[in-house]
Amino acid sequence: MIDECSICVYSSLIFLTNIFLALYYDHYFYAFLFLCLTITSVVHHTYNTDYTGIIDKIPVYAVIFYGGYIFYNKYVKEIINIKEINTKDIIKSLIIVSTFLSVVFLYAYGYLTDNYSFHPSYSVSQMYHSLLHIISSIGHHFIISL
Questions:
Q1: What is the mean pLDDT of each run of 10 residues along the chain (146 residues)?
Q2: Nearest 10 degrees: Cα torsion 139, 66, 80, 141
């Protein structure tokens, strides 16, 4: 059943910026994953059923794991190989890690305490979930630009 469009439908569209940046940096698979995420997220937040929620989780986890894979291979491996590290790389890495931890905290702690994205108030939960979209998009922008 389609209700009025929630803010999460619109905030899902922020992932389009990740698609364009990934294409710019020739990360075609990453762009494809973000395209899938954008589509499933818009569909889920439009119809909001258990089925669309499950379907939406597939690209969510794919983006998380692939982003982690890129971060590990492009940055962490270079640290292990004692490559020269500059301040710019350290700042990018801190942003990536802090955005990831912020999303984990807001989602997992929110789930455990019925807060944030799981707040009983629909409008509050939608605002926090939209914030998750924005924070995760920013984190993945930094991963793409490594």
A1: 74 98 98 98 95 97 97 77 73 95 97 96 95 98 94
A2: -20
Rounded CA Rg of the chain: 16
How distant, in Å, are the alpha carbons of 42, 44, 61, 141 from that of 100?
Answer: 22, 22, 13, 12
Q: Which two tokens stand for residue 3?
A: 């209700």
DSSP-derived letter for residue 49 is -
Distance separating alpha carbons of residues 10 and 12, to the nearest angstrom: 5
Q: What is the DSSP letter of 84?
A: -
DSSP state letter for 121: S
- Could you list the beta-strand ranges (E) of 1-146: none
Q: What is the pLDDT of residue 4?
A: 58
